[in-house]
Amino acid sequence: MTSVLPPPPADLGLEREVPLARHTYMRIGGPAAYLGVPEDLAQFERIAGWARETGLRLRVIGGGSNVCVSDEGVRDVVVSLRRACGTFAFDGTEITAGAAVMLPALARAAAERDLGGLEFAIGIPGSIGGALQTNAGIGDGRCIGDLVRAVDVWRDGARATLPASAITFEYRHTSLRGSGDLVLGATLALVPRPRVECEAEMRRLLETRKRTQPTAEPNAGSVFRNPPGDSAGRLIDAAGCKGLAEGHARVSTLHANFIVHDGQGTATEIAALMAAVQHRVLAASGVRLRPEVEWWGDGDAPEAWQ
User: Fold this and answer.
1) Which of 5, 23, 100, 119 is within CB 3.0–4.6 Å of 81 for a Cys-Cys bond?
2) In this predicted model, what pLDDT tens digit does every residue of 117-150 receive, in sequence order?
3) Composition of the chain by helix, strand, coil, percent to 5
4) Are strands 74-79 and 31-36 parallel, antiparallel or unpaired?
């Protein structure tokens, strides 16, 4: 990979062949051809311009909680915005947050100011940018899209601000995903709520998550989207898939919609196990499960994502 790709200008701060496994919750995946952490949006703009000039795809990695990276890695320019877009500010009941701000931190900060609405996000290990791609939420229907006033994006080489009305928010999907727009930040509208109430609800949600999800093992969160009127976890369990394994990867016995591994798993094993689960569920219930986890890789995606 390194012998056929151009060296980046030194001022961009890009590293070569950096393993992405260390940047994802799954803790698997090969290297990015280039990885950068721009100091500010000006440096990000220069990186984006260079990627465009060289014909390389530009990807933004956030918390890494909803992504599965190919074992071979990606021939892309991958950037983390944790420095350039890692702050937030309150204005009355509104909060403007950069794309790299993590949801749990934002939920806690809001509660400290007697603001509610983000309590549901306390157990979601993702960033604002990722949440706006997937309309992140929890099982009771609460999601980030309900709070959005505006989203700042990088579009066609320039910054732009989109009102919420210009974005389609659906279950675990928004029109931002696959649009080519890169999320830089967002403005959210919250509601007054006593801190003690916010914190009590967040404790309850975290206790439930700890009790029902395999938080101690490497995973990417919920693997499949819930089909209309049902739950992916229930269908996977009913198809007898709990404990099903492929190499070092296995379906969690605590929550069937989670795939975990023992620290030695590979993306190839994860993808094969996902396909096996899809086949079993389809045979048992007639439902074709669709991935919630995003695949990062060159060439055609594995069967599970097709």
Assistant:
1) 100
2) 999 999 999 999 999 999 999 999 999 999 999 9
3) 35, 25, 40
4) parallel
Residues 48 and 106 in one domain: no
Range of the domain at 14: 2-79
Q: How far apart are CA 167 and CA 145, in angstroms?
A: 9
With beta carbons less than 8 A apart as the criterion, state whether 99 and 144 touch.
no
Q: How far apart are CA 51 and CA 43, in angstroms?
A: 12
Contact 79, 114 (CB under 8 A): no
Give the closest residue to 106 by CA, choosing from 84, 81, 131, 83.
131
Question: Which of 164, 169, 168, 166 shows the shortest CA–CA distance to 186?
Answer: 164
Whole-angstrom distance, CA of residue 107 vs CA of residue 193: 12
* Distance (Å, whole) CA 136 – CA 171: 8
Number of domains in the chain: 3
- Give residue-wise pLDDT tens across range 49-101: 999 999 999 999 999 999 999 999 999 999 999 999 999 999 999 999 999 99
Whose CA is closest to 304, among 181, 220, 212, 214?
220
Assigned token pair, 21: 């496994």
Write the CB contacts of 7 (distance below 8 Å, at least 6 apart in sequence).
Answer: none
List the structure tokens of 200.
Answer: 């009590």
Do 63 and 156 fall within a single domain? no
Residues noted as catalytic: 172, 222, 292
Q: Name the β-bridge partners of 98.
A: 185
